[in-house]
Amino acid sequence: MTTGADGRGLAGFAALLADPTRAGFCLALLDGRAWTAGELARAAGVAASTASDHLTRLVAGGLLVEERQGRHRYVRLADPGVAQLVEDLAARAPAPATPPRTLRAASAGAALAYARTCYDHLAGRLGVLLYDALLDRGVLDRSGGLALTGNGVTWLAGLGVPVEPLRATRRPLVRDCLDWTERRPHLAGAVGAALCGRFLDLGWTTRGTGRAVRLTPSGRDALAEALALDPALLAPPASRDSGPARA
Amino acid sequence: MTTGADGRGLAGFAALLADPTRAGFCLALLDGRAWTAGELARAAGVAASTASDHLTRLVAGGLLVEERQGRHRYVRLADPGVAQLVEDLAARAPAPATPPRTLRAASAGAALAYARTCYDHLAGRLGVLLYDALLDRGVLDRSGGLALTGNGVTWLAGLGVPVEPLRATRRPLVRDCLDWTERRPHLAGAVGAALCGRFLDLGWTTRGTGRAVRLTPSGRDALAEALALDPALLAPPASRDSGPARA
DNA sequence: GGCACCGTTCGGCGCGGCCCGAACCGTGCC
DNA sequence: GGCACGGTTCGGGCCGCGCCGAACGGTGCC
């Protein structure tokens, strides 16, 4: 018998993520969108009954929240904190050593490496570029912990992103999030999420398949100007894989 | 079959914490010290052989590192990131609903609620008080993410804590860490750890049983002066449970 | 109303885990 | 050298969990 808290609570919670199917669900839901139970079941390759059981447990455990609409059961991650937790755990987990087998997969991998959402903010090479540019431009400062500068508040306002409403949330304004392709931080937190959403609203970016994000031509120029960068720097690696190939 | 990464890596990693015994090990190791295999086995109430097996897996999974000394096997958490991960998970896990049964347990609980280490920094009521005072005094600033101010750098230097060496580490200088008794943040990160260690060096605090921390009388006065606070604010709730009772 | 579809519930099966005790090895102490 | 002690290895038992298929209920469409 131990004096303080034993590990049952923690173990029970961790067990929710200790199953490949449930973990796969959470990774899929990292795109920030709501999925139906059937979609998740198909994506994971399990029977609908199995998926239903797993979802019930994930919801009961507080990792997911559900929303019933007609005959559909939509689920999504409960809050950004859960997304961060899943990302943190996934970052420490060893990669299953599964190099891309097919051309399609390789192309999809390249698209994801270039730009993708990480829950609700921007990740990949573009995300890291943005992060670095924001530091250079004095929007962010990391002389003592990552922080948004007063300069940054006005810069955001110029983009149509008022900061005040973001302060009301419990979520930290800005936060480092380690990029698993670049191995360097990109911007998370309330500001990271707001920027990602604003880019979509402005048409600077569009959603690709899965978590992939595409930068539109006009978006590239506009973003380059806002960051005082050369537009060529923001271009994707190869020009072919930015559009849907054929299927 | 899914296109991107499946959940096996994440699940395997989470499984390390999905066992009550292993989870208990990690919680015990949150005190930041190295424990022997036998100590952990006794604390968890399992056979030595069982503990040995668990430790091997935790080390292989990168959560723990071990150090052999003679016939002892010392283990500790691999790095502060692991400690943060365990804390984050534990904070989300539901409490096992086990109210303190005995007077001893209640007293120990009160001591922990007052002041304890959270891996390597200060937590509990005292930790939260310190955090608030540092904000008031302008050592910390959270107008845009938590950050250490220039003012704070000199304040730390006055305490004999040079900041420059801390910048060399990959660890963030300052970080919020949610306190599970106070439900409010206290100070983590490299500065949080350095402060906690400095207080011990100065004799302002001493280690109690387990993760408990005691504030010495002289420490109370010195800390109150450094923070420009009333010393009475820093006093523990009741005077009796600060020392070893009798047994 | 009839049908297709999404999701849930219920048994039952099989695997993998967690745990222990016993035997063994190495270290340190007397 | 002998003994005590910490830790590890091995074999075996047991329980829980994840999976499925089949049957059922509810919803929406025609």
TrEMBL record, chains A, B:
Position of the signal peptide: none
UniProt-listed CDD domains: HTH_ARSR
Xref: Pfam families: HTH_20
SUPFAM superfamilies: Winged helix' DNA-binding domain
Ranges where the HTH arsR-type domain occurs: 2-97
The protein's name in its UniProt record: Transcriptional regulator, ArsR family
